[in-house]
Amino acid sequence: MWESTGSAVRALGALPSLAAAGTLVWAVARPRAAVRQRLGRLARPTTVCAALSLITSFALPDSGLGSGWKLAEAAFLLVLLAVITRWSPPRELGPALPLAALAVTLWPLPLVAGESFLESVGIATFWLLPVAAAVAAGAYPRRQEARRRSAVAEARSAQRLQLSRDLHDFVAHDISGIVVQAQAARFVAATDLSQAMLALERIEKAGLSALAAMDRTVEMLRGPEAAATEPLPDVSQLEALIENFTSAGATEACLDLPPVVTEMLSREAGTAAYRIVVEALTNVRRHAPDASRATVAFVPTATTVELRVTNDSGARTGPARRRASRGGLGLPALTEHAQALGGTLSAGPYGDGGWRLTAVLPATRHG
Question: What are the beta bridge partners of residue 349?
């Protein structure tokens, strides 16, 4: 009878080790594709194994298995600690981590029950070191993967934002030109066929420009190398932009661009200046279609280049109309871009019902 009782005690004492070893075997003895999924489901089995270890350590200190068996049990728990720290969902780590750490830390104490309190504390503290190492072994790759995922998410968000800005800044400008030309062609088609044909030619040109901008956006989706093959327009192309704007509507636009400005602005600042002019002229076309004149002027200073886009009042424009109009990605995004370059951007009423946009961009070379 005593022999059978001793066998039962030994079996109970071996149960935590067998459970921990069986848990590990259950997780890895599967096709490789399913291993990671099973490793992420070990938090609850680890909690059970740790609870069994604590119970048997203190309820059955004399199981007859010896310290070697308990040492193997602690080793299995340390492996489980590292695995669940690496793979388990955060919501399941709450009970599993502290319980498994407690089981590994306290397993030697029943074996040294006659020692002093300070010695027991020292032994438990010593076993905290492998616990910390196991948690660190799982936490480091987990943190690295989290940082990688965050970096990928931020890169995708930045790319989506850049694509939306490109579509707004360039395609919206061309489409607004198409709308203006279509309206003009509708009014003159019955009386002046030649003017209608000119309007159709301008619609075709604006449509091709919009398609080119969309092609550039698609190239950006293929990767930075593909996007870099066609540089974005800068201040050197403003003259053609102003000519197209003037020919597309009733508003006459003029450009004051001193030659030194092209040399003073970096490539990025020049691209930002082009975008700002596009957005300003698009807003003139949308919100002040009856404005008679729009002026784009660059004023170089010692350390900056000031860009001013001004339009006079039209029959249907004014500060109230501007404030009531729907906003878009343009001015807020361009303001952030200008600030990122070290400059500023502001816009507001000017003169008698007119509007002015002012941007100050840093110069890479003194004028």
Answer: 355
DSSP string across 3-26: HHHHHHHHHHHHHHHHHHHHHHHH
Residue 74 to residue 82: CA distance in whole angstroms: 12
Written as six digits, the tokens of 114 are 């006659």
Using alpha carbons, list the distances in angstroms from residue 181 to 14, 174, 191, 204, 236. 87, 11, 16, 10, 25
Expressed in angstroms, the distance from the first to the final Cα of the chain is: 103
List b or e across 42-73, with b for residues whose CB sees 16 or more CB atoms inside 10 angstroms: bbebbbebbbbbbebbeebeebebeeebbeeb
DSSP character for 252? E
At 15, list the tokens: 């149960």
Q: What is the pLDDT of residues 18-67, one digit of tens each?
A: 666 666 666 666 555 556 666 667 778 888 878 877 777 766 655 545 56
Taking the whole predicted model, whether its pTM rises above 0.70 is answered as no
The Cα angle at residue 219 between residues 359 and 264, in degrees rounded to 5? 30
Query: Do residues 88 and 100 lie in contact, with contact meaning Cβ atoms separated by under 8 Å?
Result: no
Quote the tokens at residue 68. Answer: 């070697």
The Cα–Cα gap between 126 and 242 comes to 77
**DSSP labels, 320-362:** HHHHHSPP-SHHHHHHHHHHHTT-EEEEEEETTTEEEEEEEEE
Assess contact for 249 and 180: CB atoms under 8 A.
yes
Count of alpha carbons within 13 angstroms of residue 287, beta-carbon side: 25
